[in-house]
Amino acid sequence: MTRRLNYWLLAFLLIASVPYYWYMIDDPAAADVQAKPISITGLRKLADSLPGPRPVRVRSEFLGQCRIMRNRLVAGWGLRPIPVTIQAYELTVRGAKPIVINAGVSAATVHEYGISLFDPAAQNRVNKARAHAAHTVILSSDPLQSGNLHTAIPMPRGSEPYALAPGVVVIPAPGISPDAKLLYARLRNGREFLFAGAAAAAPESLNTLHPPARVAEAGGDSGTETKAWLMTINALRRAAPDMTVVTAHDPVDIPHVWKRFSDHS
Question: How far, in Å, CA of 221 to CA of 226, rounded?
Fold first, then answer.
């Protein structure tokens, strides 16, 4: 009886371990992934292609944090949930309207995701900045970035990078999800930023080159596309080692980023 029970337990473990490995641990990207044909030289040319004042500063608002299972951020990273930050960003332009990156979170999202340390005053500052902004760029349809407002903010469709404003380039990444995009900014003083959005969920994504596990895939071949963008971001970092890369859930303290949005009251 004991031997038979052991056989059944072993069979159960084998059956359960295969889908666990497949959906939680295995890198979902194809083996022959290639980086995207995007260069830092090309991004700089696009950033310089429109006349006018470039952004002078990047500001951020910490809106709260929630806990997400590591594997949902990076395949094979583990089952333990970790706290991740929720932030929005503002590119301030002297003498012109700002550009807002991401819209924060809605009240429904705060409840659904169990967001702690939520700061309504910070979200209100994001809302005021958006009302005053020349552009709002939402990098992902993820409710933790879009504020559930992505459908109300149309952006040009396509797959080629384009200049949105002087010093600011939008980089569509439709293979990850239809609304996914990155944003490159070159400030007036020459400092460069790359906001990765869904292409890099956390700094660990760039260290491991692992996209989220299959359990968190957006559909299609998003794992392969995400890995291609991770490779691309790392190539851009090698070409521009002083560039600040901001992932979707970066820590609160980001180099060369000022805290708190401008006062638009």
Answer: 9
CA distance 27 to 33: 12
Number of Cα atoms under 13 Å in the Cβ half of residue 64 = 23
pTM for this entry? 0.89
Angle subtended at Cα 163 by Cα 201 and Cα 122, rounded to the nearest 5 degrees: 50
Name the DSSP class of 56: -
Q: How far apart are CA 69 and CA 91, in angstroms?
A: 31
Cβ-Cβ contacts under 8 Å for 144 (sequence gap 6 or more): 66, 86, 105, 109, 113, 248, 249
Task: Tell me if 194 sits within 8 A of 245, measured CB to CB.
Answer: yes
- Measured between alpha carbons, how far is 58 from 60 in angstroms, rounded to an integer? 7
Spatial contact of 264 and 129, defined as CB atoms under 8 Å apart: yes
How far apart (Å, rounded) are the C-alpha atoms in residues 91 and 94?
Answer: 10
Q: pLDDT higher for 178 or 158?
A: 178
| Torsions phi, psi for 110 (to 5 deg) | -55, -45
Torsion of CA 101, 103, 104, 109, to 10 degrees: -140
The rounded distance, in Å, linking the Cα atoms of 65 and 54 is 31
Backbone dihedral angles phi then psi of residue 249, each to the nearest 5 degrees = -130, 60
In sign, the C-alpha dihedral spanning 173, 252, 62, 24 is positive
Rounded Cα distance between 152 and 263, Å, is: 24
The amino acid that residue 24 corresponds to is M
Q: pLDDT for 60-94, tens place per residue?
A: 999 999 999 988 888 888 889 999 999 999 999 99
What's the CA gap between 231 and 209, in Å, rounded?
Answer: 7
